[in-house]
Design goal:
Elements (H helix, E strand, L loop, with lengths): L1 E2 L1 H5 L3 H10 L4 E4 L2 H9 L5 E7 L3 H9 L3 E4 L2 H14 L3 E6 L11 H12 L4 E7 L10 H21 L8 E3 L3 H6 L35 E11 L4 E2 L5 E2 L4 E6 L16 E4 L2 E6 L7 E4 L11 E8 L2 E3 L1 H8 L3 H6 L11
Parallel strand pairs: 1-2, 2-3, 3-4, 4-5, 5-6, 6-7
Antiparallel strand pairs: 8-11, 8-15, 9-10, 11-14, 12-13, 13-14, 15-16
Helix pairs in contact: 4-5
The structure holds pyridoxal-5'-phosphate.
The site of pyridoxal-5'-phosphate has 13 residues, from loops.
Length: 343
Amino acid sequence: MAVVKADGYGHGAETVSRAAILGGADNLGVATLQEGIELRIAGLDCEILVLGNLINIEELRACLHWGLIPTLSSFREALMCEKLAEASGRNFNVQMKFDTGMTRLGCDLKDAFSLINSIENLNHVSLKGVYSHLALADGDSQDDYSSVTALQQKRFDDFLAEISQSKLELCCHLANSAGTLLDSRLHYDMVRVGLALYGYSPISNHHDSLILKPALELKARVTLIRDVPSGVGVSYGHFFTTKRRSRLAVLGIGYADGVNRALSGKISALFQSRLIPQIGAITMDQMILDITEHPDVEVGSVVTLLGTDGPKTITAQDWSDVSGSIPWEVLCSFKHRLPRLVI
Ligand SMILES: Cc1ncc(COP(=O)(O)O)c(C=O)c1O
């Protein structure tokens, strides 16, 4: 499964979905009903699992209408599905989630067996899969990873053993990117890959033959160049004051595009393989570079904020490291108004 929620982790859900399907994925994972509907409208006709909880009958009706698979965590939702399916004369395919240690969505482990039996007894609802979610998505230390994940895996295995007599043909799945990369025993019938699909490893000390390369580059254009004297405050709050006569370049990108304000003064842009410091507060629609030592930069020059230029690369991991974030958050912050160029 290619996990394409949050607009394909900021890359554009339709683009990523098509690329993932061409690359061999046969399932897509979205968080919300709307995300699933948008993919159907775009013409994607593969299995789409809604990973979030749908709580009311209207949402489930839309799910049935668009052929999306809801995740059930309780019998209450299963009964609504039964009612809708019966009324429409259609079968409702669903998956069930149970909690093995993430303590978020999914039914309690102790209720999982009876829930599966109850769903099995419904006439118009077909249970197609059971899954759970790992609590550790970014293993800094494989030791930590193993102890928590091993317990979740044991609970998952015990549950599968308990339902092994059932005649249902279930797709069983547990692994996120970290689980997929770390241990093939976590793969079961399907893996749900998010971050790694976009070219980032969730495990900082993971050395594998698999080389991941970020799929996304972020570029911005210089919209204005200013020559200013020493001692002037730059941008909101004057957090930066020039210490010399300076040449500044304004870039037409800001936090409303997804470049978090917490990165202010902590990032650089690449131009002709050289790093140019960003200075002052990042504002809603612009940010400023100090190009005093980079006379080649002109109005219209395109700089790289994330990506590779010559031998140098700036990644979402670099941004996360300086802003206390994680690559997942950096990537899915990019907003719709930022044009995507698909290469
Ligand atoms: C249920 C579920 N499965 C899989 C994923 C993919 O996780 P990752 O991006 O770490 O691969 C997510 C993402 O949060 C998720 O919520």
